From TrEMBL:
Organism: Oryza glumipatula
Annotated protein name in UniProt: DOMON domain-containing protein
Signal peptide feature range: 1-24
All copies of domain DOMON, residue ranges: 49-167
InterPro entries to which the protein is assigned, alphabetical: AIR12_DOMON, DOMON_domain
PANTHER family listed in its UniProt record: CYTOCHROME B561 AND DOMON DOMAIN-CONTAINING PROTEIN (PTHR23130), OS08G0524400 PROTEIN (PTHR23130:SF89)
Annotated stretches, region: Disordered: 201-234
Transmembrane segments: 239-262
Cellular compartment(s): Membrane
GO (cellular component) term, any one: membrane
UniProt keyword terms in alphabetical order: Membrane, Signal, Transmembrane, Transmembrane helix, Transport
Length: 263
């Protein structure tokens, strides 16, 4: 008999793998319409909390412009995104936080926090390791908050851990503790800067040369006996049929691999 939790996990996996869920994830990046003047070279659908990171990395200046988009866990809540140069989790994260708070009309406030551990944050920003400029936030569709900023990274950073989070409430200008559900705990990933499409100084990897096209197996094989000339066309057809029969399962395998890679 299936354990209910295990069943729930399997259902969650099926849901995650469903085409509808995949389309929804794609739509988080593709569906975003920023105000004029805000454009980004790349976008990543982050793997939890329905969040997306739009970004442009200027390798020559080591500067990273971002627009982090996520829905807060409640109408008066907050969203946060940051880089953790020293670890994988929350502790050590150099965070940008957009807080909606009480007033529904004004734009979310943006603060920076050097998150040292699981301690309550104050209402005032604290200095972070990556000088942050152009901090701003606005509200997107579906109650999402869009958090903008530009971070001066350290020279030569190739990839860095990123962490994000959402919360439901704000007290005294400070983000209240977020929930600790599976999605909250899974909200971390690597952000690859070097060699990414967004890295302006990196030239694209050269395309592999197309495989040389041989004359084909059929024509030359049947030509050494007189009788074979009448057989040759049939042999050619057989070869073509065989090739088609072989390539169908190969395609199926390639499709499956592609599907798994997407999931
Ligand atoms: C962030 O906090 C840690 C721990 O207190 C400290 O070592 C570090 O210097 C702080 N970073 C900045 C940029 O202030």
């Amino acid at each position: 008999m299936a354990h209910p939790h295990r069943l729930a996990a399997v259902l969650a996996l099926i849901l995650l793998a469903s085409p509808a869920a995949m389309r929804a994830a794609e739509a988080a990046c593709a569906g975003e319409k920023f105000p004029a003047g805000r454009a980004y070279a790349a976008c990543e659908d982050l793997p939890s909390l329905g969040a997306a990171l739009h970004y442009t990395y200027d390798a020559s200046k080591s500067s990273l412009s971002v627009a982090f988009v996520a829905a807060p866990a409640g109408a008066g809540g907050w969203v946060a995104w940051g880089l953790n140069p020293t670890g994988e989790g929350m502790a050590g994260t150099q965070a940008l936080v957009a807080l909606k708070g009480g007033s529904s009309s004004s734009a979310p406030a943006v603060k920076t926090y050097n998150i040292t551990g699981y301690v309550a944050l104050g209402g005032a920003s604290t200095p972070i390791a990556f000088p942050a400029t152009d901090l701003a936030a606005d509200e997107g569709s579906g109650g999402k908050i869009r958090l903008y900023g530009k971070l001066q990274l350290h020279k030569g950073m190739k990839s860095v851990n990123q962490v994000w989070q959402v919360g439901s409430s704000v007290t005294g200008g400070a983000p209240d503790k977020h929930a600790f559900g599976p999605a909250n705990l899974a909200s971390k990933a690597k952000l690859v800067l070097a060699g990414s499409k967004a890295a302006t100084a990196t030239s694209p990897a050269s395309e592999p040369a197309p495989a040389p096209v041989a004359g084909g197996p059929a024509p030359s094989s049947g030509s050494d006996s007189g009788a074979s000339s009448s057989v040759a066309p049939t042999a050619g057809k057989n070869a073509a049929t065989t090739a088609a029969a072989v390539s169908a399962p190969a395609l199926a395998v390639a499709a499956l691999v592609g599907f798994l890679a997407i999931v």
